[in-house]
Amino acid sequence: MHDSYAVNVDDVSKSFGAFKALNGVTLRVRQGEIYGLLGPNGAGKTTLIRLICGLLEAHPGTVTVLGQRMPNVAVLRHIGYMTQQAALYPGLSVEENVAFFASINGAEDGVKEALELVQLYDRRASVVATLSGGMRQRCSLACALVHRPELLLLDEPTVGIDPQLRVQFWEYFRRMAAAGTTLIVSSHVMDEADRCQRLGLIQYGRLLAEGSPADIRVQGGSQNLEEAFLALARRRES
Amino acid sequence: MSGHRVRAITRRLLQGFRRDRRTLALLFVAPIVILGLLGYLMRGSSSVPAVGIANEDSGPASAVVADVLRHSSHIETSDIDASEGDAKLRDGSLVAYVVFPQDFTQKVAAGTVSPEVHLEGSQPGEDSPVIQALQQAMTSLASQVAGRNVSFQPHINYLYGGSNYDTLDYFGAAFVGLVVFFLVFVITIVSFLNERSQGTLERLMASPLRRGEIVLGYMLGFTVLALVQAAEVLVFALAILKIQNHGNVLLIFGMEALMAIAAVNLGIFLSMFARSEFQAVQFIPLVVVPQMLLSGIIFPVSSEPTALQYLSNVLPLTYAVNGMRDIMVKGADLTWSALQLDAAVVAGFCVLLIVAGTATLRRRLG
């Protein structure tokens, strides 16, 4: 039913009033791959993620997810979305939050596993408002993956969390990808890029380059990803 | 204490308001609108209550009084038959009627002026112009029979309410519903806005939930709370405050429930038009004050200027307040067409808001 691409973004543009957030972006994400969306703040990463999960509609262009043209409510049960801000109910406990997102996706049985995955099972009774920022991020991740989605959209999941937790997060991501989940991770931190199988570099709403970290190094003519990115950005501007 | 630092705070505050046009508008436009409305309501009145006159007396005294009543600026009169008076009070076409019995002139000659005054009585504000007009007529009659001591002893009958009703009995019926309506509205608008500002609404929209499911789920959740509150208010009003009630308690509760559901959906719908809790709170005076003034709680709708009556007649709270009074003061049940209309309008308003809230949900997300 699904083609080999989990996500197919085809010549997509999106404007907000006079501001063009995305301008003719085309990219494809294979099933089971970790795809990194890289770019500075305001490059259009969040807009692209919102288009992929159907919160926004492309104009012009098409977004196809798991074989279905977006927006499409039926596909949403196979998508997990972790928003940039840890969007949780502060008055509920960790477990109540995760159980809520589980139940709206019809996956009540996944709560314990999700809590164990993010190592919050022992803190499951804690009220979210009393948690540290890092724990909230973990809880937010658990909410996004509790229904075992085929596609996981992670909007800057590691912003504001300590290096130890960041390593842990990437460990989860790798395990999920190995199990067949497709992950799209946005970031503006270059050292995370190397952990992705493929990268899309975005700036000013355009896709500058796409490929594996090694490809990007070759295209940008530098062993350092950050320098390669800057070189590609300069080349595009000139 | 540093003047410089204090100035910095003051300047920061004013700078913020400069960009918040809506708050500025509320600050400077709302008082003018509210006071203007109040002024128009109290001074712009052209509507006077309809009063029937049934003259069964053929003598000159009743003719004098009736004539003064007909020319009074406080009321609008029509000639009726005494036997149809109560029916006209019930259907709302008259606020009061005055009967001059056959022996009216005879009694005046004997020194007693005793017309029968029948008042509808469910809204105290409507009675005073009638009493005022009657007093004028009596003064006029007294001057014509000068030199004689005439005592004014009207027989006053109330169709509803009456002399054993105090102010709380009249207003209590309206306020029982109102308290629930406004509190539920405030709680809903703020918490639905929270859903938006804490980012969870975006998550919900990216889930298989449909918009209608979100709105309905919210509605049911808040309705549960609102019903508990409505029951508490009702028990307090009837058992502790001992507000008089001639209707079925379950009907009052039903009407309260309808108002609560309307308030929940109004809160959800209006939260779509607020970007912050601050802006949401600003809807409160905009929603509360005009409805307080125009829904007939304090000023009877029938005595409003005609233009405002049109406005009152499209406010759902007008029907809700009317329904509560019908039940508690008049003892209405569901066989009354007036109560059917009131309940239908409030229920229709709920449905309209559910549809509107659902339709606006996605549009306001981006």
Write the layout of secondary structure elements.
The complex is a heterodimer of chains A (238) and B (366).
Chain A: E1 5-16, E2 19-30, E3 34-38, H1 45-52, E4 62-65, E5 68-69, H2 73-76, E6 79-82, H3 94-104, H4 111-117, H5 133-145, E7 151-155, H6 163-178, E8 182-187, H7 190-193, E9 198-203, E10 206-211, H8 213-220, H9 225-237
Parallel strand pairs in A: 3-8, 3-9, 6-7, 7-8
Antiparallel strand pairs in A: 1-2, 1-4, 4-5, 9-10
Chain B: H1 3-19, H2 21-28, H3 30-43, E1 50-55, H4 60-70, E2 76-79, H5 85-90, E3 96-100, H6 104-109, E4 112-113, E5 116-119, H7 127-144, E6 151-152, E7 155-158, H8 167-197, H9 200-205, H10 211-240, H11 249-271, H12 277-294, H13 306-312, H14 316-328, H15 337-363
Helix pairs in contact in B: 3-12, 4-7, 8-10, 8-11, 8-12, 8-14, 10-11, 10-15, 11-14, 11-15, 14-15
Question: How would you characterize this protein structure?
Answer:
With 238 residues, chain A is an alpha/beta fold. Chain A has a domain at 31-45 and 75-196 and 211-237: Rossmann fold. Chain A has nine helices and ten strands. In chain A, the strands form two sheets. Chain A has a six-stranded mixed β-sheet with strand order 6-7-8-3-9-10, sandwiched between helices. The mean pLDDT of chain A is 88. Chain B is 64% helix and 7% strand. Chain B is an alpha/beta fold and 366 residues long. Chain B has two domains: 50-158, abc type-2 transporter like fold, CATH 3.40.1710.10; 167-363, no CATH class. In chain B, the strands form two sheets. In chain B, strands 2-1-3-5-7 form a five-stranded mixed β-sheet. Chain B is built from 15 helices and seven strands. Chain A binds chain B through residues 16, 50, 53-56, 73-74, 76-77, 79, 81, 83, 85-90, 101, 104-106, 143, and chain B through 198-200, 202-210, 365-366.
